[in-house]
């Protein structure tokens, strides 16, 4: 029996123990499993109370069984769901019975979704939307993933692909009727108008989506500066928990500490880095090197100093081109006026007492809003989408440039552009990327 023709099963709910656990099966033997476990097959799409029994007809659990015969199921195959009590012993007994049945095997990560894709239930962008929705940490990420799941990009890519096919048909008709006077011109002129308009439309979508990919990963903000400036205290304040060790001794932080925040719906990764200074300690030297590297790759650097001693210039953090905001800490130990000293890129705070933190947090939210822009409504959310759409634009550009070189060459460039769009949704030639896309899914989805 072919590996993928086998019926698969997996826990599709949270880790045990839990109140209820959902075990899902998909494949040609899903109905037979229900017959074996429940003694009968429930009516399609009707939740049915059943006693699950093992091969010796000993009861396993009282469960709710659901039966979704193909093709009217999530995967397009026969699907069964067993809603059992979520104890470890119950699941162990159930999985032992399932694992012993011929033609059944545990599901691989993302295999249910992959089977749905291969059955034509969803396109590739919708499958990616499912993965993004599972891994969404903030409300804005959730909304973006939900739009992908509803087929926003897939539907638009298919419209564009059809427009290319229509333009290509006009070009190829011109080739077929090239011996009939002015017929080719009457066909190719509207074709080139469509190609030019489509190229502009896709370029506009790419420009509007310039930072939408980052919404999936989040904004990276590095807190850098000299030792004992209060960087770890600020991290803990923003995280609202003790994520980093705070000590009055300089050089406490030796490695980069990461904390993931939900900042008004925007995903933010906050980095607490080692104090930047000259040192002979090899461990601290490595910490300083890592601090400079992470600051250089961050999207924003908060250069933090003790308000009583600002001798270290922020340029020592590394030049990554990111904006650098100056944050003077411990103003409670000085005569500085917190409210009066704050500026667009300069903040006076007391991380220990909390002075000025509201202004700094509001500024970070504003930076995130500006950074992500309208990314929530953007079509492109993954590098794969962007690369394929750029390939499409380049193909359309070559087709326009080949106007004087012959209709055959133009038609070939349009076919390649349509192929790139087909790869966005998975309509053509995507076997080489399927394993990459589905390998990060969780088991049971």
Question: What does this protein look like?
Answer:
With 445 residues, the chain is α/β, with parallel strands linked by helices. 45% of the residues lie in helices and 17% in strands. A six-stranded mixed beta sheet has the order 3-4-5-2-1-6. Strands 8-9-7-10-11-12 form a six-stranded mixed beta sheet, sandwiched between helices. The relative contact order is 0.12. The model is unreliable at 244-254 (pLDDT under 50).
Protein topology:
Layout: E1 7-11, E2 18-26, H1 30-38, E3 48-53, E4 59-68, E5 79-86, H2 88-100, E6 104-106, H3 111-118, H4 124-135, H5 139-149, H6 152-176, H7 183-208, H8 212-217, E7 219-224, H9 231-239, E8 257-263, E9 266-272, H10 282-297, E10 300-306, E11 324-329, H11 338-341, E12 346-348, H12 357-372, H13 383-401, H14 407-425, H15 431-438
Parallel strand pairs: 1-6, 7-9, 7-10, 10-11, 11-12
Antiparallel strand pairs: 1-2, 2-5, 3-4, 4-5, 8-9
Helix pairs in contact: 4-5, 6-7, 6-14, 7-13, 13-14
How many helices? The count is 15
Ranges with pLDDT <50 over ≥5 residues? 244-254
Strand order of the largest sheet: 3-4-5-2-1-6
Helical content stands at 40-55%
* Strand residue content: 15-25%
Topology pattern, helix = H, strand = E: EEHEEEHEHHHHHHEHEEHEEHEHHHH
Mean pLDDT: 81
Distance between the termini: 23 Å
| SSE-based structural type | alpha/beta
Report the strand count.
12
Main sheet, how many strands, which sense, barrel?
Answer: 6 strands, mixed
